[in-house]
From TrEMBL:
Keywords: DNA-binding. The keyword DNA-binding applies. The keyword DNA-binding applies. This is XRE family transcriptional regulator. GO terms for molecular function: DNA binding; DNA-binding transcription factor activity. PROSITE patterns: HTH_CROC1. InterPro entries: Cro/C1-type_HTH, Lambda_DNA-bd_dom_sf, RmlC-like_jellyroll, RmlC_Cupin_sf, TransReg_Diox_bact_type. It comes from Streptomyces coeruleorubidus. Residues 17-71 form the HTH cro/C1-type domain. The lineage of its organism: Bacteria, Bacillati, Actinomycetota, Actinomycetes, Kitasatosporales.
């Protein structure tokens, strides 16, 4: 997990975001228009002056047509076929109370990945669009309770419950348990 300051992952992430913008030929203004994120926020994220939130990364992933795991894996070393618990990358959005562990090593040639998500009590994350339209997700709650809203339908999930969905529009993940929630998210690109 990261501390309160900007760490090496944020520095590499900022550099990768700048590379992606250049690869796509976008100015900061064009990327701001496409993503709905202000130019100043984009610039600060690219220079690693701020640690981007899950919502901001989701918006950028939607513009670039990749999942958050793909983006985060691009700033990590080439993944091995086995990743030990201590070596699984962890990313934290302190503003929302979201901690994300990349359980399986994502690889560009593979379509599926496993992610462990943890939300603190009362945490509420809204994504305005999927990073990739038609993304398949399986959400299996391991501990606590989670409210997931997709396509204007809310699903209350308790420990052991699993929701399978295709994501086409906005989604919302809200911790419905006073002790927080821990869940496994299986993501399959279309």
């Amino acid at each position: 997990m990261r501390n309160d300051g900007i760490d090496a992952v944020d520095t590499r992430l900022g550099a990768r975001l700048a590379e992606l913008r250049t690869e796509h030929g976008y100015s900061l203004g064009e990327l701001a228009d496409r993503s709905g994120v202000s130019r100043s926020t984009l610039s600060r994220a690219e220079r690693a002056e701020i640690s981007p939130t899950a919502s901001l990364l989701n918006r950028l992933c939607a513009v670039y047509g990749r999942t958050m795991s793909q983006l985060l894996s691009e700033v990590e070393a080439e993944p091995a076929p086995v990743v030990r618990t201590a070596d699984q990358p962890v990313w934290q959005d302190q503003a929302s109370g979201f901690v994300r562990r990349s359980v399986s090593p994502p690889h560009a040639a593979l379509r599926g990945e496993l992610v462990e998500g943890c939300l603190t009590a009362g945490a509420d994350i809204a994504y305005d669009r999927p990073p990739v339209a038609g993304l398949e997700q399986h959400i299996w709650v391991l501990e606590g309770a989670l409210d997931v809203t997709a396509q204007d339908t809310e699903h209350r999930l308790g420990a052991g419950d699993c929701l399978r969905m295709r994501v086409w529009g906005p989604t919302r993940f809200r911790c419905a348990a006073p002790e927080g929630v821990r869940y496994l998210l299986a993501v399959v690109r279309p």
